[in-house]
Amino acid sequence: MPRDPTSAPDRKTIVRAEFSGTADGVRDALRKIRSGLTAFQVGGEEAFSAELVIAEALNNVVEHALEGTEHPVFRLSLRQSQNGVLVEIRDRGRPMPEDRPPLGTAPSLSVDPAALPEGGFGWFLIRELARDLEYRRIAGENRLSFRLAIYHTEPA
Amino acid sequence: MELVARERCGDLVVRIEEVRIDAAVAVRFKDEMRARSSGAHPRVILDLSRVEFLDSSGLGAVVAVLKEVTPEKALALAGLTPNVQKVFRLTRMDTVFTIFADVESAFVGVAHAS
């Protein structure tokens, strides 16, 4: 039985908080993640990959699910597990198109320079860096969860 | 969005003074770069040595700068930190851009480099 992510924080909770559903809210969340990961002795490339994939997921939430909604907020939790760091993002914005996360195919670069893609890399990076990605729409809430293959984390 | 632009051997070297190019600053970054790179320099070198975080919005903004600058001028990137390198490598954008280890390397072989 999975633990209820809304239960009280424990030694395995790296971050659990609610943030404003704006670009600045994303920055706040990422700042919290950085200090949380540092406290769990995660740094360097692993910490950057974690921050990048979560940034991409949160940017999508802010720009697509929450854009133009009233009181946009999202909730974020990072928990340590035996299999890495488990991330969950919840928001009450619009559902994903067709109720499923994009496939994240890499945009083609074999094009005229003037036609190079300026977007479309977000989901590609998420798919590349996140494991066990799952999206559910439950009672008007988006729940996106995934695992980051970061091991040997220990609270300092 | 802090940028420092200076001329070197006729080229324009623009150093990004921000630690992050992310969704929060991507549009400002594009606008600033457009304003700074309008001169007659044949080459614009973007010094990214201070940038520790680049997401896909930031990457998109760098691509936008490339499209803005070329084909009239050349754009080169210099000083990619390991994190920024990783984003370029994962998205294969490292195959699209001219990338130098640092600004100095961009001027190796250029006459009267100073």
In short:
By secondary structure, chain A is of the alpha+beta class. Chain A contains three helices and five strands; from the N terminus they run βααββαββ.
Distance between the termini of chain A: 28 Å
> Main β-sheet of chain B: number of strands, strand sense, barrel status?
5 strands, mixed
Number of strands of chain B: 7
Strand line-up across the major sheet of chain B: 1-2-4-6-7
The coarse silhouette of chain A is globular
Question: What is the SS-derived class of chain A?
Answer: alpha+beta
Largest interface: A-B, 28 and 27 residues
Order of helices and strands of chain A: EHHEEHEE
Percentage of residues in helical conformation of chain B? 25-40%
Shape descriptor of chain B reads globular
Q: Unreliable segments of chain A (pLDDT under 50, ≥5 consecutive)?
A: none
Number of helices of chain A: 3
Helix content bin of chain A: 25-40%
Q: Report the biggest beta sheet of chain A as strand number plus sense, adding barrel if it closes.
A: 5 strands, antiparallel
The quaternary state of the protein chains shown equals heterodimer
Radius of gyration of chain B (CA) equals 13 Å
Counted beta strands of chain A: 5
Percent of residues in beta strands of chain B:
25-35%
If you had to describe this structure to a student in words, what would you say it looks like?
- Chain A has helices spanning 23-39, 44-65, 122-129; strands at 13-20, 73-81, 84-91, 131-138, 141-148.
- In chain A, helix 1 packs antiparallel against helix 2 (44-65) and helix 2 crosses helix 3 (122-129).
- Chain A has 156 residues and is an alpha+beta fold.
- In chain A, 30% of the residues lie in helices and 26% in strands.
- Chain A has a 5-stranded antiparallel β-sheet, with helices on one face.
- The two termini of chain A are 28 Å apart.
- The model of chain A has no long low-confidence stretch (mean pLDDT 92).
- In chain A, a hairpin with a 2-residue loop joins strand 2 (73-81) and strand 3.
- With 114 residues, chain B is an alpha/beta fold.
- Chain B is 33% helix and 25% strand.
- Chain B contains 4 helices and 7 strands, in the order E-E-E-H-E-E-H-E-H-E-H.
- In chain B, strands 1-2-4-6-7 form a 5-stranded mixed β-sheet. Chain B has a two-stranded parallel sheet with strand order 3-5.
- In chain B, helix 3 links the parallel strand 6 (74-78) and strand 7 (98-100).
- The longest helix of chain B has 14 residues, at 56-69.
- Chain B is globular.
- Chain B starts with a strand and ends in an 8-residue tail after the last helix.
- In chain B, 39% of the residues are buried.
- The model of chain B has no long low-confidence stretch (mean pLDDT 94).
- The chains are: A alpha+beta (156), B alpha/beta (114).
